[in-house]
């Protein structure tokens, strides 16, 4: 079993820019016991390879994003663990600016599990993963307008609507336009 302080020391020896973060609201982290670090977005690919090749984190459990429009950023959240010792886990977070086409390198070459998760993140947030071997939408159809999990998303009516869509502009009476 590796303790978080030892793990953080190993990571910082290679990535001095890694900063430990603690969620101010523990309801967002299971027990708030896992190591959480934040690194610059450009370091995510190298850090993921280091976690896998040198520290044995061979499983990418999940990848997601959080939209912070008031701070004009997305936060990418990766959760890694060791399949041989699932109690040892690390969250890696990185910020991306919201403007333009936010992107960072794909982890598919190191973690096959990143394939669909990166596509889902792209599909719902519009975050690109450079070098992804099949970078296209996974849940919505090509040509779908917008990124539905962005907090400023406004749904454009289409033939599939039934009036209950998230992001549909409401009329003053509360019904869909």
Write a brief caption for the model.
The protein is an alpha/beta fold and 177 residues long. It contains three helices and seven strands; from the N terminus they run H-E-E-H-E-E-E-E-H-E.
Main β-sheet description: 5 strands, mixed
Residues in helices, as a percent range: 10-25%
Along the chain, the helix and strand elements come as: HEEHEEEEHE
Number of strands: 7
Order of the strands making up the biggest sheet: 1-2-5-4-3
Q: Supply the helix-strand structural class.
A: alpha/beta
Shape: elongated
Q: What is the strand content? A: 25-35%
Rounded mean pLDDT is 89
Q: Give the C-alpha Rg.
A: 18 Å
Number of helical elements: 3
Q: In terms of per-residue confidence, which ranges show pLDDT below 50 for 5 or more consecutive residues?
A: none
Oligomer: single chain
User: Roughly how many Å apart are the termini?
Assistant: 57 Å
């Amino acid at each position: 079993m590796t303790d978080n302080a030892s793990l953080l020391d190993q990571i910082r020896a290679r990535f001095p820019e890694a900063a430990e973060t603690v969620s101010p609201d523990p309801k967002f982290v299971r027990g708030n016991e896992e190591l959480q670090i934040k690194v610059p977005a450009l370091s995510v690919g190298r850090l993921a390879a280091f976690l896998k090749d040198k520290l044995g984190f061979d499983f990418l459990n999940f990848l997601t994003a959080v939209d912070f429009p008031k701070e004009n950023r997305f936060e990418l959240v990766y959760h890694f663990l060791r399949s041989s010792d699932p109690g040892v886990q690390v969250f890696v977070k990185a910020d991306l600016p919201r403007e333009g086409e936010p992107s960072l390198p794909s982890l598919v070459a190191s973690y096959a599990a990143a394939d669909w998760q990166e596509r889902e993140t792209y599909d719902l947030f519009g975050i690109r993963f450079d070098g992804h071997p099949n970078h296209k939408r996974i849940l919505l159809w090509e040509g779908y307008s917008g990124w539905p999990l962005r907090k400023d998303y406004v749904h454009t009516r289409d033939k599939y609507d039934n009036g209950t869509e998230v992001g549909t502009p409401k009329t003053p009476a509360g019904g869909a336009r």
